[in-house]
Amino acid sequence: MIYGTTENIVGAEGLFFQQGLDIILLCYNKT
Description:
Helix content is 84%, strand content 0%. The protein has 31 residues and is an all-alpha fold.
């Protein structure tokens, strides 16, 4: 998926942030 430069940057940061939260929650729940 290719968006405009600003939308692409914001979307990417949003996705990485969301994935980071998901990973943290998964690891936290496993312990």
